[in-house]
Each structure stands twice: as structure tokens, then as C-alpha cells.
Amino acid sequence: MPSPALETGKAFLAANATQPGVITTASGLQYLVLTPGTGKSPKKTDTVVVNYRGTLINGVEFDSSYLAGREPAEFPLNRVIKGWTEGVQLMKEGAKFRFFIPSHLAYGTRGAGIDIGPDETLIFEVELLKVWED
């Protein structure tokens, strides 16, 4: 039997898909372009520098690079959850997108720590600052 979080996430994504501007990819990732960029687009083997804010679909924030004293995050794009790897490749430097990431492209049945339970759908606002080509 599917978990309550999985069912809630599926219902959220189904309703969200009907919102103006929301695009759904073949994998089920949804995104909304908040600000289009003009720079380079990363490949999955590149390292990116981003600002981001992550929330659950109920609005609870679990992580943010915007917190006081934090620097933008830098990481290889192929070392993050699948939803990020796919979604950030759709961006250009200077862009800001909102990603709606289904559980199977996030942490799946294992969840992540105490903040992200099993089968959670995640929302990230991501601002792509820089692409370091590998």
C-alpha cells in the first residue's frame, strides 16, 4: 500500500501540473521558470554554484543557502538527487527556477534525515549563479 506522503505528493503534483507556466518533463519533474537566464547551461558532469531554498509541499523549509552567514552552494551536478541533476541542466546561468520534485527523483522511500520523510515530494527554488565545466 502506498504511503500517505506518496499519495499526498501525487495529488499535489497532479493539481500543480495544471497551474500556469508549470512544465512537466517525461520523468515527472515539474518546473516553473521564475527568471530566465542568459549564460551557460550545465551538463550533468559540470559543477554548479547555486543559491537555493528547499521546502516540503506543506511549506516547511528544510534547507536554504539564503540563511544568514551561508555562502552559495557548490557541487558536482551528478552528485545530487535526480530531480536536481535533471532540472538544473534546463537552466542557464542567471536563471531562477522552482522545481517540484516527485519522491522517485528525490530521496524515495528512504527519506533524508529527520526533516525529509520517506516518499516526500520536494519543492526547491534554485538560482544558478555559475557553471564550472568539467
Can you characterise this structure?
With 134 residues, the chain is an alpha+beta fold. The protein has one domain: Chitinase A, domain 3 (Roll). Helices cover 15% and strands 32% of the residues. It contains two helices and seven strands; from the N terminus they run αβββββαββ. Strands 1, 2, 3, 4, 5, 6 and 7 form a seven-stranded antiparallel beta sheet that branches. A hairpin with a 5-residue loop joins β1 (23-24) and β2.
Task: Give the SSE map.
Layout: H1 4-16, E1 23-24, E2 30-35, E3 47-56, E4 61-64, E5 73-76, H2 82-88, E6 96-101, E7 122-132
Antiparallel strand pairs: 1-2, 2-6, 3-4, 3-5, 3-7, 6-7
Structural class: alpha+beta
Number of domains: 1
Strand content: 25-35%
Rg value: 14 Å
Largest sheet: 7 strands, antiparallel
* CATH class term: Alpha Beta
CATH topology: Chitinase A, domain 3
Order of helical and strand elements: HEEEEEHEE
Helix content: 10-25%
Helix tally equals: 2
Q: If you average the pLDDT, what whole number results?
A: 96
The quaternary structure here is single chain
How many beta strands in the DSSP annotation?
7
CATH architecture: Roll
Globally, the shape reads: globular
**Poorly predicted parts:** none
* Through-space gap between termini: 43 Å
